[in-house]
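## retry 2 of 3
previous attempt timed out at serialization; input unchanged, resubmitting
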Amino acid sequence: MNPRLDLLQPYPFERLRQLLAGATPPSALKPIRLYIGEPQHPTPSFIREAVVANLDGLSLYPTTAGIDALRQTIADWLIARYELKQLDAAKQVLPVNGSREALFAFAQAVVDGSRPNARVACPNPFYQIYEGAALLAGAQPVFLNQTPENGFGLALDTLSDAEWATVQLLFVCSPGNPTGRVLSLDEWRELFALADRHGFVIAADECYSEIYLDEANPPLGALQAAQALGRTDYKQLVVFSSLSKRSNVPGLRSGFVAGDAEVLKRFLLYRTYHGCAMSQTVQMASIAAWRDETHVRDNRALYRQKFEQLLPVLSPVLGVAMPDAGFYFWARTPEDDREFTRALFNETHVTVLPGQFLSRETARGNPGAGFVRIALVAGADECLEAAQRIAGFARQRYGR
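## retry succeeded, writing output
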């Protein structure tokens, strides 16, 4: 067996299961799960209908690069969403089976694990796929803490210039999971300068890009930032996105990567051997989803309603604030986040996720410690009930 598998840490939800083992929540209270970022809004009917209408696609072997119509639809969406001047659908867009699979595979294609001190940098807290992808590619993951003190930005000064020279891949998540933080144009300028100086590739995870609160101010995207800074070839930049959260189809496993044509050419070669090709049935349904924005605006409105309802309930007891985007509250806890999570579950039957399960200990501390992630994925009434239980719990336990 690959010895690098022994380097992998348990997934956050397995750690949560162990934490809550033996707890006895009140059986009279309905369990409310706010710990996992799984969209629970209904899948739009027209996407379901598109799946059924294209079941004949199951009789075909799909091509790794996907059909021309899907690549062009994705390119058209990116051009419209981010006001791009150009994007070559044939060379700069590649359909993938969800961003999770692609993020992991991308590291295997990009990282040269035979090089001394190969490093992959990523935010901290982070999506655990980044770490696993780095380890199995033969690289050392290094973590850039995101804390209230730095405005949840990337602590780029964590690494010396000599250490940055060994970084081959930088994962960026904007809007961020779990903070909802969106990178500014100035931050992108700094990241691109680092990439140019040291030759690493930037993998920009944008799976939360379409969940935002202000319709007039959609989050800045990486390709958009690159164009604004004169990088129209998107050199050393690849973005990852998905229909899962945008269109409430996590089971469809449909997303894309887009950016640097030379990097994507090599990634396509890897994927040809990797065997990850999207079913034509899924591709046709994906075309339908990417071409429609009405259901996406309706989806955002549902999240906006929940944030507006929950903020006045949770802010007095946990100090939460509106995120830039995404569907999480990143909430401070009055005690150890694991103890808070277990006690909350035991007394209210509400499940949240300890922040330290999403982060790693570093020389500068663990930036997830003392926080919990609250995912506003359930229905509005259920989320409001959960918030009221959390507030009552906090007032009783901490006098808030």
